[in-house]
Amino acid sequence: MEEVSRWNPPNYGTLKINSDHAFDVSKKRCGIGLVARDYLVQVTLVAAIPIFNARSAEIVEALGLRWAVTMAKEKGVLHNLIDEVALGNCKRET
């Protein structure tokens, strides 16, 4: 049986940024989605980013992390960043 993880809000004064991506290997295209929530579970930032000529799912995941850090820096909460990216949980379509 597959274990189900439950999302928990971040601590007071912090953001939790979740990201995920889908990768089409044959077309070398993907999309990254990011969402940031505060301790009240209010969505503070969202982003959907298309990537063309992507070389691998791992590179795309790294780009998602970079955008998450950039979003946190722009919001002024980089020092409080909690990253909930699940590496290896990418959806590959062939």
What does this structure look like?
The protein is α/β, with parallel strands linked by helices. It is 20% helix and 37% strand. A hairpin with a 4-residue loop joins strand 1 and strand 2. It starts with 14 loop residues before the first strand and ends with a strand. The C terminus is likely disordered.
Q: Can you tell me the residue ranges where pLDDT is under 50 for at least 5 consecutive residues?
A: 82-94
Q: Name the beta content range.
A: 35-45%
The number of E-state strands comes to 5
Nearest-integer average pLDDT: 76
Structural class: alpha/beta
Summarize the structure.
With 94 residues, this protein is an alpha/beta fold. It has one helix and five strands, in the order E-E-E-H-E-E. The chain has one domain.
Give the topology.
Elements: E1 15-24, E2 29-38, E3 43-52, H1 57-75, E4 82-83, E5 91-93
Parallel strand pairs: 1-4, 1-5
Antiparallel strand pairs: 1-2, 2-3
Quick tags:
94 residues, alpha/beta, 5-stranded mixed β-sheet, 1 helix, 5 strands, disordered C terminus
